[in-house]
Amino acid sequence: MADDLFSKRVPVVFKSQDREDRRGSICVKMELATVTAPTTRKELVVRLTDEKDLFFLYTLRLGEEDFQTLKMQQGLLVDFGAFPQKFIDLLEMCLKEEHKEVPKTSTACYNRG
Predict the structure, then answer these.
(1) Which residues form the Spindle assembly abnormal protein 6 N-terminal domain (predicted)?
(2) CA–CA separation, 104 vs 13, rounded Å?
């Protein structure tokens, strides 16, 4: 059983070492799944696809235990229950900034060093 949380096309920049950067969009689908075997637990499932490239498929299944490792490594300040909504908020902000000449998110990404 899964609850759909987010399903939209999101603009991205495809970066490659041997080619020029390419702008495009991918479909981001996010759902909260309940896994029942061997124990009942929740997993955040994030799936990235591209209609123009049928071989483009990335899937992440993030359980609560894996999230704790991610939280520690990345210094996240939210718990597993709040993470999906924060992730969606970030994607929505990217969509809102998409058509601006200087989007807020691109400045934040490039200033990381």
Answers:
(1) 5-100
(2) 15
Encoded tokens for 40:
């009942």
Q: Model confidence over 76-112: pLDDT tens digits?
A: 999 999 999 999 999 998 888 887 777 665 444 443 3
Strand pairing report for 22-35 and 41-50: antiparallel
Residue ranges and CATH numbers for the domains of the chain are: 2-110 (2.170.210.20)
pTM to 2 decimal places = 0.81
Which one, of 82, 81, 100, 101, lies nearest residue 90 by Cα?
Answer: 82
DSSP state of 27: E
